[in-house]
Every structure is written in C-alpha cells, then in structure tokens.
Amino acid sequence: MIPFQDDLSRRLKAIRADGLYREVRETGSAQGAHVTVEGKRLLNFSSNDYLGLANHPAVKQAAREAIDKYGAGSGSARLICGSLKVHQELEHAIADFKGTEAAVSFSSGYATALGTICALLEKDDVIVIDKLVHACIVDGARLSGATLRVFPHNDVTELEDILKWAREKNARRILIVTESVFSMDGDLAPLREIVELKDRYGAWLMVDEAHATGLFGANRRGVAEAFELAGRVEIQMGTLGKALGSAGGYICGSRALIELLINRARTFLFSTAPVPAATAAAKAAIEVVRSAEGEELRTRLWARVDQLKNGLVGGPWKLPVVQSPIIPIVIGDEARAMEVAAQFRSRGILIPAVRHPTVARGQARLRLTVSAAHTPEDVQEFLHASAGQT
Ligand SMILES: *Cc1c(COP(=O)(O)O)cnc(C)c1O
After folding, report:
1. Which residue's CA lies nearest to atom 6 of ligand 1?
2. Is the pTM of this model over 0.70?
3. For labelling alongside 276, which of 105, 106, 156, 179 has CA 20 to 30 A away?
C-alpha cells in the first residue's frame, strides 16, 4: 500500500509536470473592473460579474438588511426550520422574472444541477448532454445512474442519432441537457433545432442559462427568451453567482417540477439553506436587472463587447465569432497559455489561463470576459497590452 503523503506528492508532481498545477491567489478587494490581487491592482477581464452587480450599492444594501433581519446563517435545511421569508421572496422574484409558474433556489449552481438531474432520472433512463457542458451537469448525469450519452458540441445531427437509439431501446425518460451560452467558449447552443428534436422524439430539455440570465432576451431572461422558446423548455436552470452578482442557483418551470424537486432533490433536502445575505442580494439584483438601469447596463456591456471585438480584429489572436461577453483566446499548449497570461499580468491585466480539466487538453486558453463595469478606457488599455503580445 502506498503511504498517504507519498501518494499526494507523487500526484502533485505529475500535475506540475503536465503544466496543470494551480494555486489560489488572494484578492483583497471587491469584484469590479479593477481588483487587487496579492497587493497588486489589476485590470480584471476574467470575472463572470457581467453587469457589475457583485458590488452594486442596492445589492449590497439588501444583503446588509437581510443580515439585520434574519441573521448570518439560516440554521438548517429549508425543510427543517431554515426556509426564511427571503428564500420565498427570492423564488417568487425568479418565477416572476422568468415568467414561469414556480422556482426553487439552491446554495450553488453546482448543487442545482446535481440535485435536479438526480431527482428527475433513475437507472434505465437516458441522459444526453453536449460534449462541452459544465462539470456539474456531467457529475449529475453520472450520479443519476441513467445511461449517459454525449453528442459532439452543438451537433444536432449526432443528437438526433442518439435520440433515435434511445427511442428504439424504449427508454422511459430521455433528458437532453445543454447550456445556452457555453461557459468556456462563449458560443450559443442551436436551441431552436434542439427544441424541435426533443419534441419530435418525446424527450425533455434542461437548459442551463448560467451565462445568459440578465443578458439576453427582451426581458433579459436568457437565450430561451431571445429565441422565443422559453415556454417549450421543461427545465430552466441558472445561477445567482454570475450576472446576478450573488451566490446560489435556481430551477424554474412548472409548479409540479418545483414540487418534485423540493421532495426529491438531495442537494436541496440535505444541505443548509442559502444564507440570508446572498438570497436577499440575488433578489435585489433581479430587481436591478429588470429596471431601466438593468437595460442600460446591458446596453453598456454589449457596447464594450463590440469595442473589444473590433479592436482585436487584425491583431495577434485568432478570434471565434463573438456571441456573448465570453471571448476565448485559444492558445492550445498549456505552458504557452500560462506564459501569455503572465505577460498580461506583468502589464497589469488579469486574465488567468484556463486549462485541463476545465477545457480539453491542448485547448488551453485565455478566457476573456467583458463587464458593464468596464469603461471604454479599460477596454482600450487591454487592446493596447494585447497589441504588444508576441
Ligand atoms: C458556473 C456554472 C455553474 C455552477 O454555478 P455555481 O453557482 O458557480 O456553482 C453551472 N453551470 C454553468 C454553465 C456554469 O458556468
């Protein structure tokens, strides 16, 4: 038997040798266009705080008031004594915002996907996921015990082949899961084709709008709204930790779906209720998103995305078609991506390299994200530093 410490050091050595070693760095400031990392002020192009709400006065004030009223902790799981008025208020606000019958919140997006997929599926069911979905969907799929099939990224022809196979084997339930905006590539799923396929084959669809909520659609509900498909998606998921600037996750849909999750989602049943501060902050953030200010923030965000995209044309990087505030600069080699990130950092710009296992091996990249908190001058500064890259 290998001794414990020997095993750890051997594995850490292998991680380093692969260029995949990671360490946490201390940020000593609030989220924003600028952050202080290990004492150094850096221009931040890596956050998911797309609308700048993580440090918004009204959002912070709501968190403070919730602490004064309900305290720091929730005391227990929701079904024991931890279901506070703020949780109910948030869930009403989510359902109203998204235009669904009901909603339920979880302590993280990760817990949302895990709990929901496992509550809906069991052995002998089939789950079909896009190759590039987030780790929490993959883990939920595996844990559910359902038969897992993966289709190549955004490939609806392959998806249809899998649906045919699932129907031939008389699967009782078939669940397709995709993201609407993909977290590491920033591209959109072909939702219209996927919705048509799932209807044709009697499958159900779960769409993770983690990177779309607050940014897309007439009411900023997400890509499903933008494509006028929201009413045809059985399970709509999102996070409260990205454009909504707080922490947590949610599912919205029919009342029966929400009732089932409250009864069966283990990450809901067996985990302490989200803290009052985060819950109230998320509710306040939804109010900002729905207001005239929210529309203004979104307009500003897209203006910055355009400025950055146009400024990068003809530069040293090969850019994908930009469809969201997530712009991947794919470098490929892990060590090389780390070098480029370090060059940006030495010029005062924070864009950490994203490597395996977050993305595939040999697909290392700088995941550039734009926020409404950026000024035109911030974008200009990034473009200037980028032009100096080799
Ligand atoms: C971030 C993310 C999650 C997880 O959400 P957390 O609230 O951070 O746990 C789920 N799905 C996608 C697509 C994400 O990008």
Report:
1. 109
2. yes
3. 179
* Positions marked catalytic: 183, 211, 242
Q: How far apart are CA 183 and CA 178, in angstroms?
A: 11
Distance 113 CA to ligand 1 centre (A): 9
How is the beta sheet containing 364-369 ordered, strand by strand? 326-332, 364-369, 353-354
Cα 7 from Cα 9, distance rounded (Å): 6
DSSP 153: T
Taking the centre of ligand 1 as the mean of its atom positions, its distance from the CA of residue 108, in whole angstroms, is 8
172/350 Cα distance (integer angstroms): 48
Integer-rounded Cα Rg, in Å, for the chain is 21
Q: What is the C-alpha to C-alpha distance for residues 278 and 329, in angstroms, rounded to an integer?
A: 32
Cα 127 to Cα 160, 162, 198, 212: the distances in Å are 13, 10, 12, 23
Q: Encode pLDDT of 204-238 as tens digits.
A: 999 999 999 999 999 999 999 999 999 999 999 99
- Tens digit of pLDDT for each residue in 15-70? 999 888 999 999 999 999 999 999 999 999 999 999 999 999 999 999 999 999 99
pLDDT of residue 390: 57
Q: How far is the C-alpha of 288 from the C-alpha of 295, rounded, in Å? A: 9
CA of 169 relative to ligand 1 center, distance in Å: 32
Q: Could you check whether the bond before residue 357 is cis, i.e. omega within 30 degrees of 0? A: yes
